[in-house]
Design brief:
Radius of gyration: 19 Å
Number of helices: 12
Helix content: 25-40%
Structural class: alpha+beta
Number of strands: 14
CATH architecture of the largest domain: 2-Layer Sandwich
Number of domains: 3
Strand content: 25-35%
């Protein structure tokens, strides 16, 4: 049963941040609510106040500026899967959004809410790390940038300070020779393993970024796997991708749970990295 709580409705990001700072751990930002309200109904978390940010303006657009794709934190998954800007500039993210959870969740859930809730078995964070995304966090009178790979700290824990509100996600628009892909596997509604890869292909493979998520507490970038492909020719990279997959599996911090054993998840990481790399090449 959902216990009673007070709903605060700030009119600006600054006001929302001020409320978070004033009420501390007894308050939580509320956007789509697809994760938060379910957790509250199950009695897993409880807050005296929910700070409704759904009506704040300027946080639900997808735009481009200075070579960067800017995604408002209040964009729903449905909005993103149908965004012509996203489809043109970042088709890998479009495809990911088309397969987030189910239709009901995509209609209501927001990308900002998904990222901030930091549920271990979630899709967007893994690809955003591989794409070199940056999160914009705002307080009452200031803002800061947090790289995607630094944003996710642990299961249900991010680098946001208590009085910060995530407002935007910025992703560098890939160059014409850039390639990226995200693949996931799972037999439950939530993915058991997710793997993302991004690189440039111009005679050889360069600028490689690999991230693994869902297998462990939080998505992680895997530098060891990247090094095995960086600077290689296309054929050389294909010969080393299995080794890179094994390295990524070891670095995934996989844990045994209902979604599979640690060993199984590590194996699937390797399989998905090979397939994602081949998909990006094609």
């Amino acid at each position: 049963m959902l216990r009673r709580f007070r709903l605060e409705e700030p009119e600006s990001v600054a006001e929302a941040a001020e409320l978070l700072g004033r009420f501390g751990e007894s308050a939580k930002v509320y956007a789509g609510g697809t994760e938060l309200l379910l957790a509250m109904k199950e009695g897993l978390v409880q807050y005296e106040r929910l700070i409704n940010v759904k009506k704040l303006t300027g946080l639900s657009d997808v735009t481009t500026a200075d070579g960067t794709l800017v995604i408002g934190a209040l964009c729903t998954h449905h909005q993103l899967e149908n965004s012509p800007v996203l489809r043109d500039k970042l088709p890998a993210l479009t495809k990911l959004e088309q397969n987030v959870a189910n239709v009901r969740v995509r209609q209501v859930g927001t990308i900002g809410g998904n990222i901030c809730f930091a549920e271990p078995h979630a899709d967007p964070g893994t690809l955003l790390i591989a794409l070199g995304a940056t999160m914009i966090a705002e307080q009452s009178s200031s803002k800061r940038e947090i790289t995607a790979e630094d944003f996710f700290v642990d299961a249900y824990e991010t680098a946001l300070q208590a009085d910060e509100v995530l407002t935007k996600i910025q992703v560098p628009i890939p160059a014409p020779n850039a390639r990226s892909a995200y693949l996931k596997f799972g037999y439950l509604e939530r993915p058991s393993v997710g793997v993302a890869v991004a690189f440039n292909l111009n005679g050889g493979v360069s600028g490689v970024r690999i991230a693994v998520g869902c297998a462990g507490p939080a998505p992680r970038r895997v530098a060891e796997a990247e090094a095995l492909l960086e600077g290689k020719s296309k054929d050389e990279a294909l010969r080393h991708v299995a080794e890179a997959g094994a390295a990524a599996g070891r670095a995934a911090q996989a844990i045994s749970d209902l979604h599979g054993s640690q060993e199984y998840k590590e194996h699937i990481v390797g399989v998905l990295l090979k397939r994602a790399f081949q998909s990006a090449l094609s």
